[in-house]
Design goal:
The chain contains no helices and eleven strands. The strands form two sheets. Strands 2, 4, 5, 6, 9, 10 and 11 form a seven-stranded mixed beta sheet that branches. The protein has a four-stranded antiparallel beta sheet with strand order 1-3-8-7, with no helix packed on it. Strand 4 and strand 5 form a beta hairpin. The radius of gyration is 14 Å and the shape is globular.
């Protein structure tokens, strides 16, 4: 009953910027922790950033200083601002939500980000 819909992916040149959005609906509430993960072709899905309902933020070392996660609870949306993009950032980016009790997880369908000259 919970749904996550990502948007904002696309083609961008190295050094460029892109902002991803994730709209939550259904059984997903503001008390859920929200996060972003990514998966490149032939590789496993990896952690990018999380933002808990209590305001704690964690960012992967590979994107630290370049990516920023934020959330707008009034509009049930979480964002990922990506700056100084590199070729290795090319991947499908997925939004994730997890309940405070850790027993319920939801994944979005993913949005493609391609960094190319």
């Amino acid at each position: 009953q919970g749904q996550l819909v990502e948007s904002g992916g696309g083609l961008v040149q190295p050094g460029g910027s892109l902002r991803l959005s994730c709209l939550a609906s259904g059984s997903i509430f503001s008390t859920y922790a929200m996060g972003w993960y990514r998966q490149a072709p032939g590789k496993q899905r990896e952690f990018v950033a999380t933002y808990t309902s209590g305001g704690n933020i964690n960012v992967a070392d590979s994107v630290k200083g370049r990516f920023t996660i934020s959330r707008d609870n009034a509009n049930n949306t979480v964002y990922l601002q990506m700056n100084s993009l590199k070729f290795e950032d090319t991947a499908v980016y997925y939004c994730r939500a997890v309940a405070g009790n850790g027993r319920h997880y939801y994944w979005g369908q993913g949005t493609q980000v391609t960094v190319s000259s």
